[in-house]
Amino acid sequence: MATRLSEGMGKIPELQRRVLFTLLLLIVYRVGVFIPTPGIDAEALSGFFKGARGTLLDFATMFTGGALEHFSVFALGIMPYISASIILQLLTVVVPQLEKLSKEGEQGRKKITEYTRYLTVVLSLVQGIMISIGLERMTGAAGEPVVMSAGWGFRVLTAITLTSGTAFIMWLGEQITERGIGNGISLIIFAGILARMPSAVGNAVTLVRTGEIAFLLMMVLILVMVGVVAFIVFVETGQRRIPIQYPKRVVGRKVMGGDTQHLPLKLNTAGVIPPIFASSLIIFPATVASFVDVPAVKRVAGSLSPGGILYNVLYVALIIFFSYFYTAIQFNPKDVADNLKKFGGFIPGIRPGTTTSQYIDRILGRLTLWGGLYLAAVCVLPSMLIAYFNVPFHFGGTALLIVIGVAMDTAQQAESHMLARSYGGLLKKGKLRGRI
Questions:
Q1: What are phi and psi of 237, to 5 degrees?
Q2: Strand pairing of 239-245 and 254-257?
Q3: Under DSSP, is residue 249 helix (H, G, I), strand (E, B) or coil?
Q4: Which SS3 state, helix, strand or coil, does residue 49 take?
Q5: N or C: at which end does the chain have fewer Cβ atoms within 10 angstroms?
Q6: Which residues contact 326 (CB under 8 A, 6 or more apart)?
Q7: What is the predicted pLDDT for the residue at 364?
């Protein structure tokens, strides 16, 4: 696939422009990660985060690409936007007005996207104020205050800075989706995770050199990682193909139809969205709790630390829930059954209409269950390795799944552009020949 994409990019200028545009905006995002928020003592903040290794706060830092650790203008990352998207999608199911908008096509989608942006700004402002208050109470490793000049001036400036940063990332993601290649929001998370991988590899090498982890165990972990990557690729490309039969029709002097096609149902229809949504919901309260000195909130954050029973149970439950939820949004069996009936197609042995819809829905439900369990198993793998094999770092899991899933989706979109361009070229040639 990589060879085909590289060859295709050399022949298709539009695909080149899209890829270069995407890379440029991702570079802009990575530069912004290192622009500090005013009024913060960087050394004191670094000392605080060193004591948070292995906690959920460290997990949240991974999703911001290190921006939270540096407390840059992008410290909130894209998580407020994801949280707003979750809230709007849930409300679409229960609020009739939003449900009506979601069925109005492109115009309705634009309106819901507009509401999502407004809600993102509100959530960012709330998080910014709460985090700024928590920062004023934080101290570094030597007891020095993290905030240079506490007060409402710092709080308002921090909230506005962080909200502006999130709004800018949201804009970058939308521009990548519209004018680049791939899903912009997913690619931003993808870039943040990849940026932290070199340091993770360096830490692993250091652990082997210092003897904290045996060389043989590291080799076993590398083999396991290769196996997990192969397993993810195998499952992500897996599908259930339902045969669709079209009857023969006589059109003039020609006999049309009579062939058999297939309706492909992916094992994991929801892709990497369920782990991202589940992570954002778990990270949000834990991130706020890390900056707020409230005993009850601290206890909740402590119980949600990676590797804990409550964390694993909640994480698995949320992943399976969002697998069903997002699949229901992406795929409507009733619409598929109606379209098949409209064009004369049918599933052998299944009556057209409602029976076909129920049959597809039943198969899709079973596939989604297995897909959700697969996502959950891969995502809790680091916790299992830490708990049962004493691995001193987080291996694979959510980060590995997101990296592979986003890379595969982006490659498929690039290949779709290549196929569309090739098909367009064939049509142009056909028209020219017809004119001659």
A1: -95, -5
A2: unpaired
A3: strand
A4: helix
A5: C
A6: 269, 270, 273, 274, 277
A7: 92
Distances in whole angstroms, Cα of residue 14 to Cα of each of 11, 107, 115, 406, 427: 9, 27, 32, 21, 18
Angle, alpha carbons 246-251-256 (nearest 5°): 30
Helices 273-291 + 295-303 axis angle, to 10: 150
Q: Given the structure tokens 């692993």, which residue do they identify?
A: 204
Mean pLDDT of 232-249: 84
Closest CA to 61 of 49, 51, 69, 53: 69
Which pair of tokens denotes residue 436?
């001659």
The pTM of the full predicted model, rounded to 2 decimals, is: 0.75
The string of pLDDT tens digits covering residues 205-236 is: 887 888 777 788 888 888 888 888 888 889 88
Q: Please, what are the domains in the chain?
A: 2-435 (1.10.3370.10)
Measuring CA to CA, how many Å separate 312 from each of 135, 263, 377, 381? 29, 35, 10, 10
Residues 259-296 have pLDDT tens digits of 778 888 888 888 888 888 887 777 766 666 655 566 66
Which residues fall within 8 angstroms of residue 327, CB to CB, at 6 or more apart? 269, 270, 364, 368, 371
What are residue 77's phi and psi, to 5 degrees?
Answer: 65, -155
The C-alpha angle 270, 165, 26, rounded to 5 degrees, equals 60
